[in-house]
Write a structure and sequence with these properties.
By secondary structure, the protein is of the alpha+beta class. It is built from 13 helices and 42 strands.
Length: about 750
C-alpha cells in the first residue's frame, strides 16, 4: 500500500477518535489504541549485508501488508514467485544517512557487497523476470547488468561474488525449463485425469517440486557475459578458492520419496577448474549428506563424523582424522566419550573452533592439537547463558559472542579472548538484541535493538559497543499509540517443571484490578519483542499471555493442559486475572493445541483455532503438496507421536480432537484459509460438522483468498475481518461469562 494511503488511514482513525468518540481535545488526548491498520503499517527491518569496512549497511524494510496478496493456490508451482515487497536502502553507519535505492518498494534477494565494498549487488524480481543490478556507493547510481544470454535467472538463485570482485556465480534455468515445470503443475491441478502410481519412485508432488531444484550454475562478468560451468542439475552450496581459480560445488540428486531416514537423496562434492571447466569428483555420490565447513581460502573443508573431526583439501585424495586417539572420557566423573563438532575456521585457516561436552576448543588444523578455551560443563550448557558466535577479529585473537540468559531477560554481546579464555561482556541488559553483524575488519558492529516492546531499530557501534549510534527511526508515529508492556513470568507446570511465559499488560492497566486474559499457545516462548497480535489483545483492555509447555514424545496432548493452565493459575493467584474471562487461541500447531485443550477443560470462556488441524489421522494425507511432511511430523517430528499409525493407533486416536468433540463445552471459532497448503480447511471442517451435529456453539470462517494463517494470510480486507472476528468473539463471550456469573449469584440469594 502506498505510504500516502497509510497516512490517510491513520488520519481518519484519529478523526474518528477525536470527533466521533467525543475526545475533548487533541492536547488532552492520551495515546490512542493500537489498531489492525497499525499492525499492517508497522515497519520492520532486516540487515542484508555490511561492507567489509563497516561503513555501509544494506537494509530492507517491510510491513505486514507487504506480505499479503499471495496466490496460495499456486503453492507447489515451480514457476510461481510469491510477492514480497520491501524498501531497499543503504545506511551510512557513521552518520545514519539513509539512501533509498528505488522510489517504490521492490522485491529483491541476495543483497551483497563486493569483497572490497565498492559495489552492492542484488537480484530483483519485477513480476515477469529476475534482473541482476548493482549500486555504486561513490556515484550513488543503480545500474542493471545486461546479460548476454536468453537463459532466465532462477527464482531460487544465489548470488556469490567472485573473490576478485569482477563478477558473480549465479544460477539460471535451462532452456525450456519454465514450460516443463508449469506443465507438470497444471497436470497435477487441472488434469483432466491424474493417476497416482505407488510403484513410481516419487510421490507425484515430489516429482513436481524436484523441478524447482534444477538450475544451471554460471559465471557472470561485470559486463554481463554469462558462462555456464555445469549442466542442469541440483546444485547447492558453492565455495570459491581465494585465488578464484576453482569452485567447489555440492550436488544433490533426488532418488525416491522416503518416509523416514535421509536415503532418498544422493549427495556429491565437485571441484570445478574455472579456467578449463574441468570437473573433479571430490566425494563420490552417497546418500550420507555432506556437511562441509570450508576454510577461508576455500582449499580445505572440515567436518565431524561420529564425534571425530576430519580435514581434507580439495586437491587431496583422503581426509585426515585430527582427533584420532584423542577421544577419552569427558571427565573423571563422566565416562562418556568426548564427541567433537566443527563450529568454525579461524580467519587465517590455521585453526578450527570445535565444541564438545567440555566446551569450546581451539584446534590446530594440521596437527589436531587442541586447547580448551571456553569450559562449558553440563550445568553451564543447560543453565548458563546461550552463546552464539558472531565473528572473529582479523588476527584471530578474539571471537564476538551473542549471549542470552536462560532465566531472565539479560541479553547482549561478549568477546571471547582466545589466549586467556575469558569471556568479557561488552553489553548485557534487558533490551532485545538481534542480527549482530561484525564487519570483516572488526571495526564496526551493526545490530537491531528494541526495548522488548517496540519494533527494532538499527544501531551501530565500535567493536566493544562503545559510542553506539541509532541509525533508524522507522515508526515515529507509534509515539502516539498506546502499546503493551511485557513481563517474563516463571511458573511450574503440573509435573513440577519450571516454565516461562510472556505476559503482555492491558493498555491502561490499573494495579489491583483483575482483567480478562487471552492466551496464545504454541510450544515454548521466552524472548519478548514487538508483537502486533498481543498489542491488539492488550488494546482491548485484556492481558495477553504466551505460556510455554514441555512436550513429551508419545503424550504431547497432555502438555498444554499441564503447562497453560498452571501458568494462568499463577497469574490468577497474583490477582491480575479474572478467572471467569479467559480466552485461548493458537495458529497452526497452536490451533491444534487449542482444539485438544478444550476437550480436556471447560474453564475458557472462548477458544479460537486458527489454521490448526483437528484430526491427526486424516491430516496424514490431507496436505498432498507437502508430500511426506505430515507423516514425518506425526511419527518423529513436531507432533511427537513417536510411532506410526499402525504401530500405535491408540495414540493417534487420543490426539484427534474431533473424536472428543462431545466433551467440548467451550464456544469455538474456527478460522481457515481455502488456499492453505499446510493445514487444509477441510480438516477443520470436520470439527465444524461434528460440533454442529452435537449442538455445540461453533462458527467456522473460511477465507477464500487466504492461506496458512487464515485472514492474516489473505488480503487487507481479510486481515481486518480476521481481527474483528477474533476480538469480537472474545468480547462477546467474556461479557456472557460475567452475565452468567451474575445470574448465578442472583439465583443463590435468599
Amino acid at each position: 500500500m502506498p505510504e500516502s494511503v497509510v497516512l490517510i488511514r491513520r488520519a481518519l482513525t484519529l478523526f474518528a477518535l477525536l470527533f466521533l468518540g467525543g475526545v475533548p481535545s487533541i492536547r488532552a488526548q492520551s495515546p490512542r489504541p493500537f489498531t489492525p491498520d497499525d499492525a499492517l503499517a508497522v515497519r520492520t527491518l532486516s540487515v542484508e549485508s555490511l561492507s567489509p569496512d563497516g561503513r555501509w549497511a544494506a537494509v530492507t524494510v517491510r510491513t505486514h501488508e507487504d506480505r499479503l496478496n499471495v496466490d496460495h493456490f499456486r503453492f507447489g508451482d515451480p514457476t510461481y514467485v510469491a510477492p514480497s515487497l520491501e524498501t531497499l536502502m543503504v545506511v551510512d553507519t557513521r552518520t545514519g544517512n539513509e539512501t533509498a535505492l528505488f522510489d517504490d518498494r521492490v522485491q529483491v534477494s541476495n543483497v551483497a557487497f563486493s569483497p572490497d565494498g565498492g559495489t552492492l549487488a542484488w537480484i530483483r524480481w519485477d513480476g515477469d523476470e529476475h534482473h541482476l543490478e548493482t549500486w555504486d556507493p561513490a556515484s550513488g547510481r543503480v545500474a542493471a547488468v545486461s546479460l548476454d544470454t536468453d537463459l532466465a535467472i532462477a527464482s531460487n538463485a544465489g548470488l556469490t561474488w567472485r573473490p576478485d570482485g569482477r563478477g558473480w556465480l549465479v544460477q539460471f534455468r535451462a532452456e525450456g525449463w519454465a514450460q516443463e515445470a508449469r506443465a507438470a503443475f497444471l497436470e497435477m491441478t487441472e488434469g483432466p485425469i491424474v493417476v497416482h502410481d505407488g510403484s513410481e519412485p516419487f510421490l507425484d508432488w515430489d516429482r513436481v517440486r524436484n523441478l524447482g531444484g534444477l538450475t544451471v550454475p554460471a559465471l557472470v562478468g561485470l559486463d554481463g557475459e554469462v558462462r555456464p560451468i555445469l549442466p542442469e542439475g541440483g546444485w547447492g552450496a558453492s565455495t570459491f578458492t581465494d585465488d578464484g581459480s576453482a569452485l567447489t560445488v555440492t550436488g544433490q540428486r533426488p532418488l525416491k520419496t522416503v518416509y523416514e531416514g535421509n536415503d532418498g537423496t544422493e549427495w556429491r562434492l565437485l571441484r570445478v577448474d574455472l579456467a578449463t571447466g574441468d570437473t573433479t569428483q571430490l566425494v563420490e555420490p552417497d546418500t550420507d549428506r555432506i556437511q562441509a565447513n570450508f576454510s577461508p581460502d576455500g582449499t580445505r573443508w572440515a567436518y565431524a563424523d561420529r564425534g571425530d573431526v576430519f580435514v581434507r583439501g580439495i586437491d587431496g585424495d583422503s581426509a585426515v582424522n585430527l582427533t584420532e586417539g584423542d577421544r577419552g572420557p569427558v571427565s573423571a566423573t563422566d565416562t562418556a566419550t568426548i564427541r567433537y563438532s566443527v563450529l568454525d575456521w579461524s580467519p587465517d585457516g590455521s585453526r578450527l573452533l570445535v565444541s564438545s561436552q567440555q566446551g569450546w576448543h581451539l584446534m590446530d588444523a594440521a596437527s589436531g592439537s587442541a586447547r580448551l578455551v571456553l569450559p562449558l560443563d553440563e550445568e553451564a550448557r543447560e543453565e548458563g547463558p546461550r552463546l552464539n558466535r558472531v565473528g572473529w577479529t582479523p588476527d584471530g585473537s578474539r571471537i564476538a559472542v551473542a549471549t542470552s540468559a536462560r532465566d531472565r531477560w539479560q541479553r547482549g554481546l561478549a568477546w571471547l579472548d582466545l589466549a586467556s579464555g575469558t569471556l568479557e561482556q561488552a553489553r548485557s541488559d534487558a533490551n532485545l538484541y538481534s542480527a549482530w553483524t561484525l564487519s570483516e575488519d572488526a571495526s564496526t558492529v551493526v545490530y537491531r535493538m528494541s526495548d522488548g516492546d517496540r519494533p527494532d531499530e538499527l544501531f551501530a557501534a565500535g567493536p566493544d559497543l562503545e559510542s553506539p549510534r541509532r541509525l533508524t527511526t522507522l515508526n515515529p508515529w507509534l509515539d502516539e499509540v498506546a502499546l503493551t508492556r511485557s513481563e517474563l513470568v516463571e511458573y511450574l507446570d503440573v509435573d513440577g517443571e519450571k516454565q516461562f511465559g510472556i505476559l503482555y499488560y492491558p493498555v491502561g492497566y490499573v494495579e489491583g484490578r483483575a482483567y480478562p486474559l487471552v492466551a496464545e499457545v504454541y510450544e515454548e516462548f521466552f524472548d519478548n519483542g514487538f508483537n502486533h497480535r498481543m498489542n491488539l489483545v492488550a488494546s482491548q483492555g485484556w492481558f495477553g499471555f504466551r505460556p510455554s509447555v514441555d512436550l513429551e514424545e508419545g503424550f504431547p496432548g497432555e502438555a498444554w493442559m499441564k503447562g497453560v493452565t498452571t501458568g494462568i493459575n499463577t497469574l490468577i493467584d497474583r490477582g491480575l486475572v479474572d478467572g471467569r474471562r479467559l480466552g485461548i487461541h493458537g495458529t497452526s500447531y497452536g490451533g491444534y493445541a487449542v482444539n485438544l485443550i478444550v476437550t480436556q477443560t471447560d474453564r475458557f470462556a472462548a477458544a479460537i483455532n486458527i489454521s490448526g488441524k483437528v484430526n491427526i489421522i486424516s491430516f496424514l494425507g490431507d496436505s498432498e503438496k507437502i508430500t511426506t511432511r505430515n507423516y514425518r511430523a506425526a511419527e518423529s517430528g513436531q507432533d511427537r507421536i513417536g510411532a506410526t499409525l499402525w504401530e500405535q493407533p491408540q495414540k493417534y486416536l487420543a490426539h484427534t480432537a474431533v473424536l472428543a468433540a462431545d466433551r467440548i463445552e467451550t464456544p469455538l471459532l474456527l478460522l481457515t484459509g481455502e488456499g492453505d497448503w499446510n493445514v487444509p480447511a477441510t480438516n477443520q471442517r470436520e470439527m465444524y460438522y461434528a460440533l454442529r451435529r452435537l449442538g455445540k456453539e461453533v462458527v467456522w470462517v473460511n477465507y477464500l483468498r487466504a492461506g496458512h494463517g487464515a485472514g492474516r494470510a489473505g488480503t487487507v480486507e481479510d486481515f481486518h475481518d480476521h481481527w474483528s472476528r477474533i476480538l469480537g468473539w472474545y468480547r462477546t463471550h467474556f461479557d456472557e461469562a460475567v452475565a452468567d456469573d451474575a445470574d448465578v449469584v442472583s439465583s443463590n440469594r435468599p
